[in-house]
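Consider this record:
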Amino acid sequence: MTTLTIRDFRPEDAAAVAAAHSAGREHLVLTPETFVWMDANFPAEQHHRTLVAEVDGQVAGALRCGLVTGTSTKGVGYANGSILPAHRRRGAFTALLGAAEAHLAEHGVVEVHSWVDDEPAALEFAANRGFTAGRTAHFGGRDLALPLPAAPAVPAGVELRPASEWADDPYPIFVVEADAIRDEPGEVVMDAADYEEFLNGDWARPDFDRELTVVAVLDGEPVAFSAVQTDGADRYWSAFTACRRDFRGRGLSKLAKYESLRRAREAGYRRAYTSNDATNAPMLAINEWLGYERCASERKFTKQLGG
């Protein structure tokens, strides 16, 4: 008889949880160390929780859930996870999702958002559990051993510098992110970015690479960047490419992302991945120019709780 247990994450689960997260999804770059860090360091107001499914004493997968912060919209939560292929279709993810929904409801969440692989079984699973399909995002992958396109010209007054130069005071980087994220495609307007959350979240992540994160500086002021997370070995993830709204249309995001990839090639990284909303035509065009090829897609699903 199979025994299924749902419990909270422990640091020793990290390798199995990371394996479940990336199973069949080479484009998702998230290390075991980062899972441990996220579980211990996400802001208290997010009520983040990593739930683990055990099948007969073995970790079968996990789900991360919490409240969406950085927005004036209240009552929105997230729930994302995966099960190792050998343990699928045995009720583990259904149990994880039920526990996550109960946890979120306790903290005032009325709408849950979840990213779902854009493939028939996953889409059917979500629909059967009361979720409604929404927007699409596309993943792109690139072999960094292949040559990059010719470098674009750098406009007068622009410098391309690593984020590590702001190690003592990253507030100017935060200013770029807080402005740019306000009109990122999505169901929730991110209009309440918090500097402490940026410091203790994005900036402090163990997989955040400050040397490969490239900042475009115009007349001494950061105005765009391409943020990078890596596995420390050979995989590179473009976490967020941003430009302040007043400086768009000058190719600064393109410059930053190009220079970041160039530095990643020199540092020995071999696979680069990125993701964009299907409606974000400017960034999709930049990624195509950079040589990314679509390798997967996912759909955003939402569910109303307590209805």
Notes: The two ends are 35 Å apart (CA to CA). The CA atoms of residues 12 and 36 lie 9 Å apart. DSSP finds eight helices and twelve strands in the chain. Helices lie at 14-22, 32-41, 92-106, 120-128, 171-180, 195-203, 252-266, 281-290.
